[in-house]
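Working notes for the structural subgroup meeting. M.R. asked for a predicted model of this chain before we commit to crystallization trials. I am recording the input and output together here so anyone reviewing the notebook later can reproduce the run.

Input as submitted:
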Amino acid sequence: MGTKGRDIAFWLFALTGTGAALLKSKTFFWAALVFALLFFYHFAVERPRATRESRAKGLKVVALVPLRPYLARFLAG
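Returned structure, recorded in token form:
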């Protein structure tokens, strides 16, 4: 899950969490729980793995820039 996936998981958690609080709905509560787990998965698994792989490649600073696949292929040559 990249940064876009993390952001989507956060906003879906925020919306379903608000729905669960306002509507007292168990369905919204469970949906909010799933989205919260997806959101924290990024920090527990994805980010440490990216840090390890970056350090293994000798990188000191990494800037993640979201690109469209066709634009990335164009820029790569």
